[in-house]
Design a protein that fits this description.
The chain starts with 32 loop residues before the first helix and ends with a helix. The chain is globular, with a radius of gyration of 27 Å. Helices cover 52% and strands 11% of the residues. The protein folds into three domains: 47 residues, Up-down Bundle (Single alpha-helices involved in coiled-coils or other helix-helix interfaces); 214 residues, P-loop containing nucleotide triphosphate hydrolases (Rossmann fold, 3-Layer(aba) Sandwich); 52 residues, no CATH class. A seven-stranded parallel β-sheet has the order 3-2-4-1-5-6-7, sandwiched between helices. It contains 16 helices and seven strands. 32% of the residues are buried. It has 371 residues and is α/β, with parallel strands linked by helices.
């Protein structure tokens, strides 16, 4: 059967007896073609260093977000501009309370952050919520869902929610979060929340960039926490037993007593602060103000005994070395000669031809010769 190429439908052929197809109307484009062309050809204007800094200092969220994107970028030109912006903003930073928040999945971190964040904004504060997602290296995902889960908070004036980069090593993501804190403080955010997803190495990274480290728990989860409880609890400056509502109130009070006793078993903190436990319900916002009161008591005490500033100085020193380590690691793996040799040695190690240490030594020796 042969069909005329000029016909609109093969069904128009006379072999399809008694069947006719109307041509129909051409579909109207959903967007004005001229307007679309103009929009697509319009390239976003690159900002100068002064425009970035002035925008951040004036609290312009759009410019702040663009500056954070530069921090997260791997392009050398973007990184160079980001560092210049950070240097200019540094004198205007440091005036916030940095709160680290962690907890097992299901503890209600996002709901808690929204409840506490709303409470602070209603008191006239400005809040930035940043996140560290160490799982992104494997899943290539991010916690963009937090923006949808914190609908009420994200729509409030004075709130800025920024998910972590969608991929990258923990060290790289943590460094970028640390740099983002500086820009947020310069933009006038007097409270910075750093949320960590899940429980693992990211707690150490968060602990090293915040003033107060808060652990969110739920009543009845003691048995499941045995594997991670000690290390995380030793870092915690305070614990909030969340979901203390309805039938859970008695369980939450019992958990508060148990965790309070457990905290007394740990060595005294160099801050002279004795960690406390509070109960709260993020859904009803009851007890949330008490958690913040605990944080402010800590801040008052540590500012008075000079630990607050001493801790921040030590953190800055720590991140200087972390940045060096991260840069060297990145430079090593991005080197083309190392990349090529790495694949060869990897096969030899997997096949048991040479030891892991010999392979590492060979690669490092080659790298230092290149340098």
């Amino acid at each position: 059967m042969h069909f005329n190429k000029n016909r609109n439908h093969i069904e128009d052929h006379n072999s399809y007896k008694g069947l006719s197809i109307n041509k129909g109307e051409d579909q109207t484009p959903s967007l004005n073609p001229d307007a679309a062309k103009k929009f697509l050809s319009k390239k976003r204007k690159d900002l100068t260093l002064k425009e970035y800094v002035d925008g951040i200092l004036s609290g312009n969220i759009t410019i702040l977000s663009r500056a954070v994107t530069l921090i997260e970028s791997s392009l050398p030109s973007h990184r160079e501009m980001a560092q210049k912006i950070i240097m200019e903003c540094l004198p205007y930073s440091g005036k916030s309370v940095r709160l680290g928040i962690t907890g097992v999945p299901g503890a209600g971190k996002s709901t808690f952050i929204e409840a506490l964040g709303s409470h602070l904004i209603n008191q006239g504060s400005k809040l930035a919520v940043l996140a560290i997602d160490p799982s992104s290296e494997k899943t290539k995902g991010s916690i963009l869902g937090d923006k949808t889960r914190m609908e009420r908070l994200s729509s409030m004036e004075g709130a800025y929610i920024r998910p972590s980069p969608s991929a990258g090593s923990l060290g790289g993501v943590a460094r970028k979060t640390r740099e983002t804190i500086i820009l947020c403080e310069a933009a006038g955010y007097d409270n910075i929340f750093i949320e960590t997803v899940g429980v693992g190495q990211s707690e150490t990274a968060v602990h090293s960039m915040v003033d107060f480290f808060l652990l969110i728990l739920i009543a009845g989860a003691g048995d499941e926490l045995q594997g991670i409880k000690r290390g995380i609890m030793e870092m915690a400056d305070g614990i909030a037993i969340n979901k203390a509502d309805g039938e859970n109130i008695k369980k939450a009070e019992l958990a508060k007593s148990q965790y309070s006793n457990a905290l007394h078993l740990f060595p005294p903190s160099p801050s002279s602060w004795a960690p406390k436990v509070e109960t709260c319900s993020s859904l009803s916002s009851s007890g949330v103000a008490d958690v913040w009161k605990m944080v402010m008591e800590y801040v008052t005490l540590t500012r008075k005994n000079n630990y607050f500033e001493q801790n921040r100085r030590e953190q800055s020193q720590y991140w200087m070395y972390e940045s060096i380590n991260e840069a060297l690691k990145e430079n090593f793996y991005q080197n083309s000669e190392i990349k090529e040799r790495l694949k060869e040695l990897e096969k030899l190690v997997v096949n048991g031809k040479i030891s892991s240490f010999e392979a590492a030594g060979t690669l490092l020796e080659k790298y230092f010769k290149i340098k």
